[in-house]
Structure formats: C-alpha cells, structure tokens
Structure to design on (278 residues):
C-alpha cells in the first residue's frame, strides 16, 4: 500500500511540475484584429486557437488577447493563421481572396496598416520576384499591399477610405530604399517614382470619387510597370474597362480573376476583361 501511495504522490508531483513549466512558457499579447460581429469572433478565434495558443477576440474594441506557449508556437504564427482566414491584424494583411470569401456582414472596413513587410505565405502573400535574380523580390511589397486595398475601396465607392489608403501608399513609396533594389527595379523606380508620388497625392487631395478614379488610372499604369520589373510570385491579373475616360479605357491590377471594376463600382461592377496575367 505504501508503494502504491508513493507512486500516486510521485505522479501528482510530476504533473504539478509539468503544468508549472508550461505556465512559465505562456505569454499573453494584446493585438488589434479587424472584424465586425459574433460570426467574425468565432472565425478569428477558431483560426488562431490551437493546442499551443488560445485567442479571445473582443468585438467592441477589435482587440484580441492571445495566450500562447513560446516553446511551441509564436505570435507571428497565430497572426498568420488569422490573416489566412480573412482578417487583417497589426502585422499581417489578409489576402483579397480570403477577405472576399467572408460573409457580407463580416466584410469589415480595411484600414489597418500592418508593421510587417509581408503577409503570410500560407495566405498567398503579396510577394514579388525579381526578373534578373532569385531574390525574394519584396522591395515593393508595401506599395503592392496598399494598392490592392486602395483598389478595393474604389470598387466599394468609398472615397474616404480611398483617401486614407492613398496616404498609406504615399508612406510606403517614401520608405522604398533604392540601395536594396535590383538593377532592373532601380531602372523602373527612377522613371516612375515621381509619377507614383503625384498620383498618390492626387488621390489624397481629390474632392470627389471621380477625381480619385482618374488618379487611380495613372497610378495603375505605374504599378503595372513596377510589377513587370519585380514579377509577383502569384497570379496577378491586368484588367481593363473599355468605357472609362470617355471610351479611352482604364486599366488596373487585381489579385482576383473575377472582374470588379474600380472605375464604376456597383454601377458597372463586371465591366471589363483580363488582358494579361502576370
């Protein structure tokens, strides 16, 4: 009986020590994660919660408390999974495809500006590949990120959000480090930098949606030039609306093959066609 007692006592002590060690490895972080409703809460928490992490998202302040075992996972890993489910957060932007698949009531206003220079590869991040070497090609990453969000705002005819995103785009343009660019990227950057800055400023200063869309047409051609020098590692669709600009047409880039016209929005949402896949 004594031996049996000692064994039970030993197991309990070992279990206690193990639980204590796990507690010592647990860290709590508070992170901004965009969302709208109870359905968002369920999706966010399911995406981020695992055997080694627990997510508790607050709908009122759009902030999540994330508890995770630092020996088994990381905050980055949890946030990548959440972005992959369609939810922007402080560090990662959700891919357009994931955001588009959210229920209509869950499609929150996209105004977060991640601090990270890339979105998660698992979630089809917007990463670029140089045309003349095997580098990861992320030199224009922030520009691409903001451009695609800006395009979405114009599709939604949200002039206020477009102006704010144009401001973020200006910041991204100003942060490009020429010394880090490849020779090909430097060549196109020298010819397009001034025009990119001017188009972004025009979008910020425009008094109405039509003027923003005019500026976006110029911006899109410059972004297209950048993408040719730093080819995306995923499919990007170069699309055109033949009706815009009094029949002269307007082009844009999209991560969606399906046409969502940024020049007319709901008025002529599907007007246009894909003229090139990058």
């Amino acid at each position: 009986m004594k031996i049996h007692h000692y064994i039970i006592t030993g197991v309990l002590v070992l279990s206690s020590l193990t639980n204590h060690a796990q507690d010592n490895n647990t860290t709590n972080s508070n992170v901004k994660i965009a969302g709208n409703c109870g359905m968002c809460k369920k999706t966010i928490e399911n995406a981020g919660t695992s055997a080694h992490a627990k997510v508790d998202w607050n709908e009122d302040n759009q902030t999540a408390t994330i508890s995770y075992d630092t020996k088994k996972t990381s905050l980055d890993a949890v946030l990548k999974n959440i972005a992959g489910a369609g939810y922007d957060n402080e560090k990662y932007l959700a891919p357009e495809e994931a955001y588009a698949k959210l229920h209509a009531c869950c499609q929150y206003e996209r105004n977060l500006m991640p601090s990270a220079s890339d979105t998660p590869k698992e979630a089809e991040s917007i990463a670029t590949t140089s045309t003349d070497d095997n580098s990861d090609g992320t030199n224009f990453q922030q520009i691409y990120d903001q451009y695609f969000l800006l395009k979405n705002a114009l599709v939604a005819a949200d002039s206020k959000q477009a102006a704010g995103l144009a401001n973020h785009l200006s910041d991204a343009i100003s942060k490009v480090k020429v010394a880090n660019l490849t020779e090909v990227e430097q060549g196109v950057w020298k010819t397009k930098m001034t025009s990119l800055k001017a188009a972004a400023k025009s979008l910020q200063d425009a008094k109405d949606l039509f003027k923003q869309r005019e500026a976006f047409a110029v911006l899109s051609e410059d972004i297209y030039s950048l993408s040719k020098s730093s080819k995306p590692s995923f499919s990007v669709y170069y699309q055109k609306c033949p009706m815009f600009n009094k029949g002269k047409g307007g082009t844009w880039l999209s991560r969606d093959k399906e046409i969502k016209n940024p020049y007319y929005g709901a008025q002529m949402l599907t007007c246009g066609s894909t003229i090139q896949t990058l």
User: Anything to note?
Assistant: Residues 126-278 form a domain with the Four Helix Bundle (Hemerythrin (Met), subunit A) fold (CATH 1.20.120). The first helix runs from residue 2 to 24. Confidence is low (pLDDT under 50) at residues 116-137.
